[in-house]
Specification:
By secondary structure, the protein is mainly α. The chain has one domain: ABC transporter involved in vitamin B12 uptake, BtuC, CATH 1.10.3470. β2 and β3 form a beta hairpin. The radius of gyration is 20 Å and the shape is globular. It holds the Pfam family BPD_transp_2.
Length: 316
């Protein structure tokens, strides 16, 4: 029993469980292992995967960001509208990155500098940013004028869609940042004990602002790719994204109490979220049930996080 518990709670255990689940699903669900479905599965988790890269840092530093879904939608809208207005896709992309970065920066300053609770701050910006997207578009989808914009999502490299390569690159970059840089080590230190980190010379306020600014910037990248994939700027896009991203991170071993994170775990968590949805689609299960499954996954993720924290506390 204790060995089973170690398997469930350990970092490698999650990978083993995922591998077993993947094999079972491959053998029992028709058409799951086809190349077309695998690429479709990876395409479907691009938005969650990209945003999870920086949500991992937010959670690891004892914060979280509920405004990510709104920022993704708003950035996609800005990219499309700016591209249409200027006739330049590059300017549209830059405008989206600036807007995403500004939203993240505002979150960071309000939370870190003014010491306002992250829940209240990001809940407020979630509403404000979604409102701005709806106001800018008058509540309607905005079509893309330049067909070249579609190529961001449609283009392929070695037969694999470009957004999947971008997601993989961000996994590698942020995995390196977490494990091999002072920024990553300081993030985990702040999550473990903010006061001790401050006394050790870490500028906690600046670090937290940077983490939220990065979160906004990465949301903008996800928003641009999503707008390209759905061929328009949608003010209601990415609704509920924040819960899926947090679920994926916590399922992947990122602690809600801060101080613990691993990119391999986050990748597995993202894939679990994608596979659950993909299997239900292949089995023609009604979309309504997907809400129930997402809720159950979130509950399981929090339960596992609680068990991991208890186990770490006992070992400590």
């Amino acid at each position: 029993m204790s060995s089973l518990k170690k398997l469930l709670l350990g970092e490698q255990g999650l990978v083993v469980i995922f591998a077993l689940a993947f094999v079972i699903v491959s053998l029992t669900v028709p058409n799951f292992l086809t190349e077309r479905n695998m690429l479709g599965l990876l395409q479907s988790v691009v938005t969650i995967g990209i945003v999870a890269c920086t949500m991992m840092f937010c959670l690891a530093s004892r914060d979280f960001d509920l405004s990510v879904g709104s920022t993704v939608a708003f950035s996609g809208m800005v990219a499309v509208m700016a591209s249409n207005a200027t006739g330049s896709i590059i300017l549209g992309l830059l405008a989206a990155l600036v807007c995403g970065g500004v939203v993240g920066l505002v979150n960071g300053v309000v939370i870190a500098r003014f010491r306002i609770n992250a829940l209240i701050t990001t809940l407020a910006t979630m509403q404000i940013v979604r409102g701005l997207a709806l106001i800018a578009s008058d509540g309607r989808a905005v079509g893309i004028n330049d067909p070249a914009f579609y190529q961001l999502a449609l283009s392929k490299f070695f037969g694999v869609p470009t957004p999947i390569w971008i997601m993989a690159a961000l996994f590698i970059v942020f995995g390196f940042v977490l494990n091999r840089t002072v920024f990553g080590k300081n993030t985990l230190a702040i999550g473990g004990n903010p006061e001790a980190s401050r006394l050790a010379g870490v500028n906690v306020i600046t670090m937290r602002i940077w983490i939220f600014a990065l979160q906004g910037l990465v949301c903008a990248i996800a928003g641009v790719l999503l707008a390209s994939r759905i061929t328009s700027g949608q003010p209601n896009a990415a609704t509920g994204l924040e819960l899926s991203v947090i679920s994926a991170c916590v399922l992947g071993g990122v602690s809600l109490a801060g101080g613990r994170a691993a990119m391999t775990g986050v990748i597995v968590g993202v894939l679990i979220m994608g596979i659950a949805e993909n299997v239900m689609n292949l089995l023609n299960i009604q979309a309504f049930y997907q809400y129930v499954v997402r809720g159950l996954i979130l509950l399981i993720a929090v339960l596992l996080d609680n068990l991991r924290s208890t186990a770490v506390g006992r070992r400590g």
